[in-house]
């Protein structure tokens, strides 16, 4: 159709009619006078629309997917941020609960041993002292901490104070190869010296080479003169292996320490020694052995065969 005045007038007239029909259809609702015509048109053009839709939908779906993926990405990022915040909060709560549990155990062990302690928190591992197994704690001279004080936690012996600053102190761990502490066997008087071996069990040399020691026996600190650097009765560990004496002057034991040196957080510095040796009272209760189930087999005699029974008769 050429662009003439008549064609433009026809176009305007068709548009006006279309708007009029749309208005009538909207106002009529379900009783619209053009509803029948719309249904007829749908019947005629429906298959054509479906064919066109099948061709156009993949593109439309792709655009919609891109748009929705952007919305999902934004929502996912928001959820991830919320999840991270919740995890941080939960982790903080878990850490708080863990510290409360550690502090509770520390107070119980100090109560049983009658140790006067100053609570501290580990703020660094491995101070600037070569390759020594050390930790730094957040108490120092201003808190009454002095060199050669015993350090423990709720499980047992941690180490001894070696360096003291105004507000911090360095502790040499019992696992350090340069660490040595006098020990005493539980429920006995067998004395020895325990030395650190890094991440391996402590090595203990008993003074009595003929001492009767078995796996599972436990040790505590013997204590030092004037209670420095070690107070008596602090749990050390459990015997995991006993070397044969072999005629030596000493007996060698290997002891798994009660303390997990890689998980230190809350510790206590013994600022006041007990009035008397607590002996074994600070040791934790021994776990009850798990009973081994036994199986009883009952044999029921079988009936003799008919032929055998007749032969015996």
TrEMBL record:
<comment type="similarity">
    <text>Belongs to the MreC family.</text>
</comment>
<dbReference type="InterPro" id="IPR042175">
    <property type="entry name" value="Cell/Rod_MreC_2"/>
</dbReference>
<dbReference type="InterPro" id="IPR055342">
    <property type="entry name" value="MreC_beta-barrel_core"/>
</dbReference>
<keyword id="KW-0133">Cell shape</keyword>
<feature type="domain" description="Rod shape-determining protein MreC beta-barrel core">
    <location>
        <begin position="130"/>
        <end position="270"/>
    </location>
</feature>
<dbReference type="InterPro" id="IPR042177">
    <property type="entry name" value="Cell/Rod_1"/>
</dbReference>
<protein>
    <recommendedName>
        <fullName>Cell shape-determining protein MreC</fullName>
    </recommendedName>
</protein>
<feature type="region of interest" description="Disordered">
    <location>
        <begin position="274"/>
        <end position="313"/>
    </location>
</feature>
<comment type="function">
    <text>Involved in formation and maintenance of cell shape.</text>
</comment>
<dbReference type="InterPro" id="IPR007221">
    <property type="entry name" value="MreC"/>
</dbReference>
<feature type="compositionally biased region" description="Basic and acidic residues">
    <location>
        <begin position="274"/>
        <end position="283"/>
    </location>
</feature>
<dbReference type="Pfam" id="PF04085">
    <property type="entry name" value="MreC"/>
</dbReference>
